[in-house]
Design a protein that fits this description.
Layout (H helix, E strand, L loop, with lengths): L4 E6 L2 E6 L9 H16 L4 E6 L22 H9 L4 E6 L2 E3 L1 H8 L2 E4 L4 E3 L13 H9 L1 H10 L3 E2 H7 L4 E2 L6 H14 L16 H17 L5 H14 L2 H16 L2 H16 L16 E5 L3 H12 L3 E5 L3 H20 L5 H9 L1 E4 L10 E4 L5 H14 L5 E4 L6 H5 L8 E6 L8 E6 L5 H13 L3 E6 L6 H18 L3 H11 L5 H8 L1 H9 L3 H4 L6 H8 L13 E2 L6 E2 L2 H13 L9 H21 L6 H11 L9 H8 L1 H14 L9 H8 L4 H9 L1
Parallel strand pairs: 2-3, 3-4, 4-6, 5-7, 6-9, 10-11, 10-13, 11-12, 13-14, 14-15, 16-17
Antiparallel strand pairs: 1-2, 7-8, 15-16, 18-19
Helix pairs in contact: 1-2, 2-3, 4-5, 4-9, 5-8, 5-9, 8-9, 9-10, 11-26, 12-13, 18-25, 19-25, 23-24, 25-27, 25-28, 27-28, 28-29
Bound molecules: (S)-3-Hydroxyhexanoyl-CoA (3H9).
């Protein structure tokens, strides 16, 4: 039928096989092949039609690489309308992940069977889209409005057994049953029973006052939760239309809102992140035959919050962990914290009792380093102090088996200086987890001067196993994320002392989409952490006092942040809700007087512009120096580790959206009006602005 679709008749049943690796996306050749197969089936003497896929999955959706380009005929809507109208019994046989346009294809079949491992979902919302091929209209007709609302607005896949209960799947194959044979048997039973051609488009749908209230509540909830994303609201519009208008009208609305979402910059940002996340896992220049080393046993040094969180990541993935702490008390505290975290996950329904027990059984505590003699990988998560880390690495080098990889979870320290104290610098790298480590998806993999290709490949593979988004970084102070963060935080501090209040700064950034404003983040982490770090620095290293005088004064007054009930804000002891505290404004004003700063009104636009341009300028410098491999890697770091709004695509994508030339002009303006020291434009930013280029254009040229 086409290079990716074949059609044959086996025992009077037509079989459409789709073979479009890696995920059987609905590329043009699949769509045209499907269309031709339907034509063939309608005029031959087969009695029914089964659609199934080769490889690891049923169709995982439309081909995202075709988005944003001129449409190629036939469009999916046409193909699916043809499928919906087909004059013979149609059955979709699902395995792997039937997602997006893939599930929509299956929903156009009269019946669906699935193997037990299959999952179905409509993840378009994660790309700033809505299901654009009937998903918003057929799903509620088959599964009810509430299930459709959850499935489509969360974008989360649903297991086959649940999909059977929900009515999205009609028949579950027996465990281990061959997919084709199972689908044939099921189809035969439908034919034998004279099953009607059950079209989802023709099913009735009810709409009660209760349903209306559910949709209204969802609108409000999602407005808050998705921080300004537009697709979730459009999805609810479509669901409401599904329940209140004829099918054809609902389909028309869905199509027009799908196209609206597709041309929305939010969707291009989210699609950019989809590919950036996958690209980030690829290491430039790695020899093709580099094989990751096996990692079955992991050691973690330091049973604090970080070490415990890291231990959970590995145990959750079925990897045995030995957690080491110097003191029995520290170890007990750490293991206790882990147990509490697991029991919270169980009580919130995020984890089953069995899985929690199985994971905890994989974590062994010890106060004896020699129990690490046989582990494949050790991750050190002790206090941020170079000498201490070097001492730990000397010990590890003596104790661990020769092939073991030694990793540091440092946020700032020089990984080369840590590797240098061992006799195996080629086996040393940074694995920088983000707090809480068992929740945050980002993992910075820091390649030191001597880290071997093999251990970098191993780290990438391990990251994927434990469900992280890995990003490669070179050695520098703060690597990618924290190095940029210093500039962002500096501007937050300067806006504060120059005239804004903490609430103005945080609301400006949260209103723009950040998960949490910069000062509220400081309160959450504890202001004493930065204070202590600054104590170890010379005045020169600390930089401009205007960028740290306020937090220093707050810490000296015991305002350490949330843990003390007060920091930049005061916190309700019960609810932890923050509120303004006039005492903080007094501190800010006195710091401004002391440092000779005249306070002025600062707008939300200025706050957002200064903080984001500071990120972009430093990000450009990081690219210039080769600390990050690509602009998209920086975007992945910010989206997965720093609460950057995903629908803005990350700092470097933001620069492209705003126009690099415009960003460069703004940086120059701040250099001329605010501070020549803080705002020297990066050479790369300047070069791209001068050549009217973008970060993505620059990246494309380098790849070519
Ligand atoms: C849609 O369907 C719209 C419709 O409603 C309406 C249309 C009118 N297209 O993730 P992996 C690539 S919107 C093109 O590492 P895994 C991916 O880039 C779509 N390429 O594998 C990667 O390439 P590379 C709704 C795609 O096993 C390779 O496949 N569907 C697509 O960890 C392997 O991917 C979705 O949003 C695609 N649709 O996970 C599903 N999908 O090797 C998106 C993947 O060059 N996909 N690629 O880096 C996924 O969620 C995961 O890929 C999946 C497999 C779970 C399927």
């Amino acid at each position: 039928m086409s290079e990716t679709v074949s059609y044959s008749i086996e025992d009077d049943i037509g079989i459409v096989r789709i073979d479009n690796p890696p995920v059987n996306a609905l590329s043009q050749s699949v769509r045209s092949g499907l269309m031709k197969a339907l034509e063939a089936s309608s005029s031959d003497d087969s009695k029914a039609l089964i659609i199934l896929c080769e490889g690891r999955t049923f169709i995982a959706g439309a081909d995202i690489t075709e988005f944003g380009k001129p449409p190629l005929e036939p469009v999916l809507g046409e193909v699916l309308q043809r499928l919906d109208e087909h004059n013979k019994l149609t059955v979709a046989a699902l395995h792997g992940t039937a997602l997006g346009g893939g599930l929509e294809t299956a929903l156009c079949c009269h019946y669906r069977c699935a193997d037990t491992s299959a999952r179905v979902g409509l993840p378009e919302v994660k790309l700033g889209l809505l299901p654009g091929a009937g998903g918003t209209q057929r799903t509620p007709r088959l599964a009810g409005l509430e299930t459709a609302l959850e499935l489509i607005t969360s974008g989360q896949p649903m297991a086959a057994a649940k999909a059977l209960d929900a009515g999205l799947v009609d028949h579950l194959l027996a465990a281990g049953q061959d997919l084709l044979q199972g689908a044939k048997d099921y189809t035969r039973s439908l034919l034998d029973g004279n099953a009607p051609l059950r079209r989802a488009s023709a099913l009735p749908i009810a709409f009660s006052e209760q349903d209306k209230a559910t949709l209204d509540a969802a609108r409000k909830r999602l407005q808050q939760k998705t921080r300004g994303e537009r697709a979730p609201q459009r999805i609810i519009d479509c669901l409401e239309a599904a329940a209140t208008r004829p099918f054809e009208e609902g389909l028309k609305l869905e199509r027009s809102l799908f196209l609206e979402c597709m041309s929305d910059p939010q969707s291009s940002a989210l699609r950019h992140l989809f590919f950036a996340e996958r690209e980030a896992a690829k290491v430039n220049g790695l020899a093709k035959d580099t094989r990751p080393l096996p990692v079955e046993q992991v050691g973690i040094i330091g049973a604090g919050t970080m070490g415990g969180g890291i231990a959970m990541c590995f145990a959750n993935a079925g990897i045995a962990v030995t957690l080491i702490d110097n003191s029995p008390e520290g170890l007990e505290r750490g293991l206790g914290l882990i147990a509490r975290n697991y029991s919270t996950s169980v009580s919130r329904g995020r984890l089953s009792e069995e899985k929690s027990a199985a994971a905890q059984a994989l974590i062994q505590g010890s106060t004896d380093y020699t129990s690490l003699a046989n582990v494949d990988l050790v991750i050190e998560a002790v206090f941020e102090n170079l000498e201490l880390k070097q001492t730990v690495f000397r010990q590890l080098d003596n104790i661990c088996k020769p092939g073991a990889i030694l990793a540091t979870n440092t946020s700032y320290q020089d990984v080369n200086a840590i590797a240098a104290v061992t006799n195996r610098p080629q086996q040393v790298l940074g694995l920088h987890f983000f707090s809480p480590a068992n929740v945050m998806k980002l993992l910075e993999i820091v390649r030191a001067d001597h880290s071997s290709d093999e251990i970098i490949a191993t780290a990438m593979a391990v990251a994927k196993r434990i469900g992280k988004v890995p990003v490669l970084a070179g050695v520098c102070y703060g690597f990618i994320g924290n190095r940029m963060l210093r500039h962002y935080q500096r501007e937050a501090q300067l806006c504060l002392i120059e005239g804004a209040t903490p609430a103005q700064i945080d609301s400006a950034m949260e209103g723009w989409g950040m998960a949490m404003g910069p000062l509220a983040v400081g309160d959450l982490a504890g202001l004493d952490i930065g204070y202590k770090a600054r104590q170890a620095l010379s005045d020169d290293e600390k930089g401009d006092p205007k960028s740290y005088r306020v937090p220093d004064l707050l810490v000296e007054q015991g305002r350490l942040g949330q843990k003390a009930g007060k920091g930049y804000y005061q916190y309700d002891p019960e609810t932890r809700k923050r509120s303004d505290d006039p005492a903080v404004l007094e501190v800010v004003e006195s710091a401004a007087r002391e440092l000779g700063v005249e306070r002025r009104a600062i707008s939300a636009e200025e706050i957002v512009s200064r903080l984001t341009c500071a990120l972009i300028n430093e990000g450009a410098r990081i690219l210039e120096e080769g600390i990050a491999q690509r602009p998209g890697d920086i975007d992945a770091v910010y989206a997965y580790g720093y609460g950057f709004p995903r629908h803005r695509g990350g700092p470097m994508h933001l620069a492209d959206t705003l126009g690099v030339k415009q960003v460069y002009k703004t940086v120059c303006h701040y250099r001329d009006t605010l501070s020549a020291d803080n705002w020297q434009p990066s050479a790369l930013l300047e070069a791209l602005a001068n050549s009217d280029d973008s970060f993505s254009g620059w990246q494309a040229q380098r790849q070519a």
